[in-house]
Amino acid sequence: MTGPLQIVLGTISILFLIVASVMAYRAVRAMVRIIRTGQPDGTRFGPVKSRLKTLLVESLGHTRMLKWSSIGVAHWFVFVGFYGLFLTLVEAFGEVWNPAFHLPLIGEWALWNLFADIIGTGTILGILYLIYRRQKDHPRRQGRKSRFAGTNEGRGYFVEAVVLTVGVAILLIRSLKVSSDLTDAPAWSHPVSGALATVLPDSPDLLSIVAFIKIAVSLTWLVVISRILNMGVAWHRFSAFFNIYFKREADGRQALGPLPAMTSGGKPIDFEDPGEDDVFGRGKIEDFTWKGMLDFTTCTECGRCQSQCPAWNTGKPLSPKMVIMDLRDHLYAKAPYLLGEKAASETAPDYDVLKPSDEQVWASGYARIEGTNDAQAHRPLVGTLEEGGVIDPDVLWSCTNCGACVEQCPVDIEHIDHIEDMRRYQVLIESNFPSEAGVMMTNLEKRGNPWGMGGNVREDWIKELDFEVRVADGPLPHEVEYLFWVGCAGAVDDRAKKVTKAVAELLHTAGVEFAVLGNGETCSGDPARRMGNEFLFQQLAMENVETLDGVFEGRVPGTRKIVATCPHCFNSLGREYPQVGGEYEVVHHTQLLGQLVEEGRLTPVTPVDRKVTYHDPCFLGRHNKVYTPPREILDSVQGLSTQEMHRCKDRGFCCGAGGARMWMEEKIGKRINMERTEEALELDPDVISTACPFCITMLSDALTSKKQNGEAGEHVEVLDVSQILLRSMQPVAVGAQGAEQGADVGTKGDDVVGLDSAATDHDPK
């Protein structure tokens, strides 16, 4: 059935294949060479079994994509269609020459034909749904709220058009084989194409033309992406597998929780004796590791990270997506200089700064300098518009380290690690950071806490209790089960001190033997590390490890237990201190209290008739996956009516204090704590509950402002989960040290806390 038409189309197809294959080979080789210019990182290769398992689960199972279920399902069909139906492209090369051509062995196999029919149809429906969602969520409709704001829409349209065209071609070819009686596969194996065949002509030539179109479109796509190495929306189809395999945590966890230690040349930096050529943080694009460069290459510009980012959602210039896009575009524009193909001038030229395009108007660091040129080679990684910086300082310092971007990213990009590495360079090398944060770091250096309070105040809260609290003096006695890490906020901040007293009283009531370090405790170092001052973090961490090893002297692993009320301390002590030799079993107070309630050692007896909504602290929830214990404690308290905010658990919204932003002014856009508090108040709660001293401060400040403006009832409170539990342990209207007051359940006349609450019966009887 080979005629002149088939010969012409077949010849063109073969020639096109040769050209496209050569271009693709050269593109992949160039991409690998560019990525290999990054710093080494030897932690990404093993264990192979765990990494392969993670790769299979995340790719075939689409576990990350399915966080957004409908989009995830649609993408799964497109994904499976691209790889699973690759053989239909191979078959198309035969069909161009001979319309009756079938793949050897499986071409007429019923199961293969059924698979191709179902997945081909799914691919078409899937891409149509994704096209619909792109248009529904388009910036022209949603403006800044669109997750596609800043995305290169033209590239997205191109990829969608290719997928749709190829999917339709697959079904048409199969249908034309049926209508032209060129297949012996049973009818049940091609239900969709068989139905479509009833309206198609008997035309082998048309089949060859459609096969040629399928080949031409596929190879055009390959040629285009070979010419545009930073086209992540297309290249992620290949690079995502490698990015997932080489992710930070081999067991499949996201790059959350601990920050990696600072490395140079693939080795941790010894801050006591650093090497002369050690690179501190990332000051140039080539300072990033090869895995960082792979991250940049893999970004699909889907905007999931952007849609969840608290900074972006409150009018700040930080978009995690556009940070990665900026770094990617700069990397590939500077690539000829990195590879030695071009030599930069000795001095930086005057920057001819470009204004961002309308599409990227919100991203202050985007599209300032285009193309490969000396300006690109010399531009600073972090700098203002006038300096031609790749990343604007306002972008860098807006990050709260909440982890929403990392949690949502379907291809495991490690946004926080990259942002923190750039901060490290700015702090340690450039000494360029928000001035108010400098006060915090000075306080940490001189006073051991961010507020600058004297060390002798750390035991003041103990004097307000009516029972004795053991203060560690040397190794802890055997009967002491837990060291209670109070934390800076818990010792010096008035609101957090109430939580400290509540937890201490609950532990005492449950008969848990515990001790505190008192004045011997100093900051865990979390604010310094998240600020980028790794040197100060190391100093504080090693001090604390020496102290903790002293009190745990003689104890074997499993008996070196610490309970912390601050999620930031909880994260540092338990997951970052092993980097400096500190190995401890650290639990958050909600975990321990939940365990005590479950064991019957704490029994809530007094109903607390209140409506409560719980706010997930980022460093307890997303960073450490502690979602259930606080909620179980609230569920154990009789009378409580609980309701979740629409952004909760792994989609929880930050309070605005993380990433050392507790000590930086919020000068741009809406205050993050105000946004979160408004979201809570929409539920008309009596209590906004949380489990973090930073969150208590931020939410309380916002609530106070709302009360002053008459936008919140005076009865509304911000309380730690432990305070609510303690209230439920007290008789009605009897106060407790850390609870502020008792349950106060009653009529409107004596309803001190729940005045006008929807969850309280105010009808006097």
UniProtKB/TrEMBL annotation:
Alphabetically ordered keywords of this record: 4Fe-4S, Iron, Iron-sulfur, Membrane, Metal-binding, Oxidoreductase, Transmembrane, Transmembrane helix
UniProt entry tagged with the keyword Transmembrane: yes
Top-level taxon in the UniProt lineage: Bacteria
Protein name per the record: (Fe-S)-binding protein
Region (Disordered): 737-765
Transmembrane annotation, as ranges: 6-28, 73-90, 110-132, 157-176, 206-229
Organism: Blastococcus carthaginiensis
Domain 4Fe-4S ferredoxin-type stretches: 290-320, 387-419
Biased composition (Low complexity): 737-746
UniProt-listed PANTHER family: IRON-SULFUR-BINDING OXIDOREDUCTASE FADF-RELATED, IRON-SULFUR-BINDING OXIDOREDUCTASE FADF-RELATED-RELATED
Pfam (any one): CCG
Keyword Translocase (UniProt): no
InterPro entries (UniProt xref): 4Fe4S_Fe-S-bd (IPR017896), 4Fe4S_Fe_S_CS (IPR017900), Cys_rich_dom (IPR004017), HdrC_iron-sulfur_subunit (IPR051460), Helical_ferredxn (IPR009051), NarG-like_sf (IPR036197)
Residues in coiled coil: none
